[in-house]
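The methods section describes the discrete structure representation at length, but only in general terms. The central task, working out the structure tokens from the amino acid sequence alone, is never made concrete. Nothing conveys this as quickly as seeing an actual entry. For illustration, here is how one protein appears when written out as sequence plus structure tokens:
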Amino acid sequence: MKFKLILAIFIIAITGTSLPADKGQTVQDFILRDTDNKEYSLTHFSHAKAIVLVFVSTRCPWSNAYNERLIKLVNNYKDKNVQFLAINSNQLESVEEIKTHSIENNLNLPVLKDTDNRVADQLQASVTPEVYVIGKNYKILYHGRIDDSRDETQVKSKDLENALQAILAGKEVTINTTKAFGCSIKRSN
């Protein structure tokens, strides 16, 4: 254990970055704008039982394979005090492209532009789609994938839904970290 701590400190010192966000870590508030230039922050949703941050892309086939599932999730949880926010941190995807993509795909949640990757960097998000579920006091309760297959007909584990069900039932999220898969986030720096 002592070795792992020393190694982590060494990595942070060398790279200047933090370790990936994980269960129990507090997410710092942020302000991002959607495609209509409306500002959003975590504090706007402090009343929510959970805030789901989903890193997305307009060009990633993995991310786009989840558009329909994301729409269903938003619809299933909108009356249960769960707020979904999509975040696009890809440098090459403009606000105009994101807006067109959102309209064409009937996305029913705010899609926010993380222009200089501040939120992606804070959470150490690396792929699209990648999910962070935030609870009271902005603590991460779940981090990882939406489910276990890009092909919806092959899904065996609905990880995000399982986490949300536990949170809404007032229970501990038993599987609170899974490996997200998809396209890498194309950062601005």
Observations:
- The chain has six helices and nine strands.
- The CA atoms of residues 14 and 55 lie 27 Å apart.
- The radius of gyration is 16 Å.
